Amino acid sequence: MQLVHIFLLLQAAVAQPSATVAIRISQLGYLPDAPKVAVLCSIAPIEVRDFVVTDAAGKTILQRPATLAKPFGPCVVNSRLDFSSIRKPGEYRIVAAGATSPVVRIRANAYTGAADTLLYYMREQRSGYNPLFKTVVHTRDGIVVDDSARNGKFVPVTGGWADASDYLQYVMTSANATFVMMMAYRDNPSAFADRFDSRGLPGRNGTPDILDEARHGLEWLARMFPSDSEMYNQLGDDRDHTYWDLPVNDSADYGWGKGKERPVYPCTGKPQGLFRYKNRSNGLASTAGKYASAFALATSIYRKSDPAFAARLNKKALAAYALGKKFPGVCQGAPGRAPYYYEEDNWVDDMELAAAELYALTRDRAYLRDALEYASQEPVTPWMGADTAKHYQWFPWHNNGHYEIWRNANAADRRLLAAYYKKGLSAVVGRADNGFRIGIPFIWCSNNLMASFATQAYLYRRMTGDNEFREYEQAAIDWLFGANPWGVSMVIGVPHNGVFAHDPHSVVAKEMHVELTGALLDGPVYSSIYKNLLGISLHDPDEYAPFNIGFIVYHDDVGDYSTNEPIMDGTANLSYLLAALANRR
Ligand SMILES: [Ca+2]
Ligand SMILES: [Ca+2]
Predict the structure, then answer these.
(1) Quick one: DSSP state of residue 84?
(2) Which residue from 393, 401, 525, 564 could staple onto 352, CB 3.0 to 4.6 Å apart?
(3) 39 CA to centre of ligand 1 in angstroms
(4) Residue 258 contacts residue 228 (beta carbons within 8 Å)
(5) How many angstroms is it from 179 CA to the middle of ligand 1?
(6) How many angstroms separate the CA atoms of 254 and 258, rounded?
């Protein structure tokens, strides 16, 4: 214990900013032909005229003026140091205003392997057989609640992933995670390796690991939608938060005794919540659309390798879509004892994606018409351009549906779909005149928004060849890997020699002394949000205190569940972008 403690103190000492001026960079490095910008952040007023770049021998190879931008957060001086003209792979340093950057790497393989690294966290989050604990966790899932026809019935729904550092499980996030991982594989199969088996244990099994993980999700989703009249949405509720314990000895008591069965919530089309707080559910389509899109894409992926599995999922895709058409509206997360739940308010995005996948699968033009109609109802994911949103109000964070329709659409529809993406990107960019070029709102899970903004910008660029948003796309990627006020990579262990969270809000990390490699954190939030959350406090002195004086905060502290908690859906969501970047130069 003592050694671990000393180790953590040393880590804190390394991360401690030594001065009031910092040069923030992407610790993953920069692709030779990509925009390359470091960001200077000074928490005291200074003048920054120019910067120099030195090569590995210490020789100055570039001197340029810094570009002053609007102050941002703690950075009263916020400048962009653009070294895009350097294309030669190598290691460099950037010096400005007396500060020196960490080593800047330019390399063609900057993103190689990064998408696969995310899967370490996905495997660690597995319910059912868990390769970290080498046993089955949560074996008694679960008993149906909030369903007058089936209350008290046992349904076998073990599997899937814990949503974050608690052990709740949602179809909403899990179906999207499953979908994105399959999409990442479909578009960039060479980005993924085969080093683990289907249980997540070391050893190749002839299947790319991303598909091992997607299949783990699909099998749980199939259990959660066992028949056309039983569409389940959630496993467990926030009574889970009563105890801070490991998944193997989860003591949560849902009325059947500690560590016994967990509740399974169906979609009912009506407001849900067993206690004081109720959600605003009014339909099935948000969940039905997510089931249908994941099952439809899976049908095409498994058609050759496992036709029986594909046929079973094909049937479920059609059934889920039909339920979504019949019961429009949202099926939100169900609150337990606390007022926090997933407040998803949009469902046309989910039905659009489902229709797009069913069209790709069947070529039945009725699905294409549906998809385009749904797309026209919500061309822009509504958080884009906004200051705030409710918790997971607009989910998924970006709408893959526009891109999925585009893949099989005619020229006129392609232009329309690209214009939808452009409108959303423009709205975010309109707020991004700071030195970090960041225009997202810093609500809870801001890193999800960052990853989704970058993904949408990437998809738009791929669809159109238009580089209008390239600088902002790269800025969002760089932010996630260290070009942020704190100089912290928001993905644990990526890169391995970088600065990242060592004290995440996770009982597994804390009690097992393991690094949650590959986990994307929630990310910084408005300081007003942090101050108003229930039961939040830091356990240790804040090593990033000098940079936590602005309108947004981030703490590497187990006590901060708002900024330092790893998130399953965000981690999976990032797999598409990192796989795509690994295949570019
Ligand atoms: Ca494998
Ligand atoms: Ca939605």
Answers:
(1) T
(2) 401
(3) 39
(4) no
(5) 18
(6) 7
Distance 211 CA to ligand 1 centre (A): 7
For residue range 459-509, what is the model confidence (pLDDT) as tens digits? 999 999 999 999 999 999 999 999 999 999 999 999 999 999 999 999 999
Contact in structure between 221 and 175 (CB atoms under 8 Å): yes
| Nearest-angstrom CA–CA distance, 106 and 89 | 5
Say whether pLDDT at 5 is over 70.
Answer: no
The token pair at 456 is 């949408």
Q: Compute the distance between CA of residue 564 and CA of residue 556 in angstroms, rounded to an integer.
A: 6
Max CA separation in the chain (angstroms): 75
Q: Characterize the bridge pairing of strands 104-106 and 128-130.
A: unpaired
Q: Quick one: which H or E segment has residue 549?
A: none
Which ligand lies nearest to the CA atom of residue 346 in the structure?
A: 2
Distance (angstroms) between ligand 1 centre and the Cα of 137 equals: 21
- pLDDT, tens digit, 9 for 90 and up, residues 162-188: 999 999 999 999 999 999 999 999 999
Structural tokens at position 545: 């205190």
135 Cα to the center of ligand 2, angstroms: 34
pTM above 0.90, yes or no: yes
Query: Judging by beta carbons within 10 Å of its beta carbon (0-12, 13-18, 19+), is residue 133 exposed, middle or buried?
Result: middle
Main-chain dihedrals φ then ψ at residue 236, nearest 5 degrees: 85, 165
Closest CA to 500 of 441, 447, 457: 447
Tell me: the pLDDT tens digits for 351-385?
999 999 999 999 999 999 999 999 999 999 999 99
Q: Chain centroid to CA 27: how far?
A: 19
- 525-537 pLDDT, tens digit per residue, is 999 999 988 888 9
Indicate the helix (H) or strand (E) that contains 159.
none
Peptide bond between residue 396 and the one before it cis (omega within 30 degrees of 0): yes
Task: Calculate how far, in angstroms, residue 115's C-alpha sits from the geometric centre of ligand 2.
Answer: 24
Summary mean pLDDT of the chain: 95
pLDDT score for 17: 43
Ligand 1: centre distance to CA 294 (Å):
20
291 alpha carbon – ligand 1 mean position (Å):
24
Residue 7's pLDDT is what? 36
User: Measured in angstroms, how far is the CA atom of residue 197 from the centroid of ligand 1?
Assistant: 4
Q: How far, in Å, is the centroid of ligand 2 from the Cα of 345?
A: 7
Residue 4: is its pLDDT beyond 70?
no
Distance between Cα 189 and ligand 1 center (Å): 13
423 CA from centroid of ligand 1 (Å): 39
- Closest ligand relative to 345 C-alpha: 2
Q: Report which residue type is found at 136.
A: V
| Cα of 116 from ligand 2 centre, angstroms | 27
Question: Can you tell me the mean pLDDT for 203-226?
Answer: 98
The Cα–Cα gap between 146 and 143 comes to 10
